[in-house]
Amino acid sequence: MTTSNLTRIVPRRRPGEARAGYGFIALDGLGLIVFVAGPALLALVIGLFDVDGFGKIEFAGFDNFALMAGDKLLWKCVGITAIFTAIFVPTAFVVSLCLALVVKNPYPGVGLVRAALFLPQVISLVVIGVMWKFLLTDKTGVVSGILSPLGLGDTSWLGDPWLALPTVAFISVWFLMGYQMLIFLAGLQDIPNELYDAATVDGANAWQRFWNVTWPCLRPTSFFVLVTSMVNAIAGTLAFDIIYVLTKGGPANSTSTVIFYAYQQAFTYGRFGYAAAICGFVVAVLILLTGAMFAATRGGRFNDA
């Protein structure tokens, strides 16, 4: 069964269903405009001023943006953010998809398994960070005790510049995989069983059913997961809360992402205008990346061919 045949089999959405869908997301869209788009636009405006938080507000034009070009530490943070995103996004995608496939079909205790995997989502990220910091304490932590027989008991997971970023990425995957699993699970349950029956009749094995039925039908869901995880990695809570609690950007700035660097510029050094300019840069990058993903995948929709 080819993708083009699958396209003809999947029924088109009726206009009424589309209107209902837009109605469901209307309030969420309004919230995004008020609490995301509005602050992003305000950051761009503040980036044009020299603001120190003590009443100084002077128009600076594009001076703050010009300073970014020569800020070596900022571009180091850009590289760290890119590495973190490259580790986190594909790993979380694969892990959450595999988990969704595991808990898709009903079996005794599947509800408890789903709840356990989703449990981190109902816990504050600060609590998550404190918990993992306790578990990863050098030499005396629980993780060191478990890995001691393997000769890894003395490993400093958060204190080694080469290990800190992958460790933070691993914790981020652990935190977000339950949420992404539910998104994939919803996508899997929306696939008509008739498609699997037709593929089975055609003699397709389990891998062929996944590749020719499951994977094409999950394209819109996959697109949503990729975009949201990318935003989380670059400018979301994962890029700030977990890093702030676990490492505060260290050691040696090895976990300092762009958004964390902007926070330091604003609330440690009082350079609010410069921090706003950095945030404006981050917003512009996210818009470009998201636009490129939409253009390359057509929003995850099926090909019309």
TrEMBL record:
It holds the Pfam family BPD_transp_1. It is a multi-pass membrane protein. Keywords: Cell membrane, Membrane, Transmembrane, Transmembrane helix, Transport. GO terms for cellular component: plasma membrane. It comes from the Bacteria. GO terms for biological process: transmembrane transport. The chain crosses the membrane at residues 21-49, 73-103, 115-135, 162-186, 223-246, 272-296. It is found in: Cell membrane. Gene3D superfamilies: MetI-like. Residues 78-293 form the ABC transmembrane type-1 domain. Belongs to the binding-protein-dependent transport system permease family. This is Binding-protein-dependent transport systems inner membrane component.
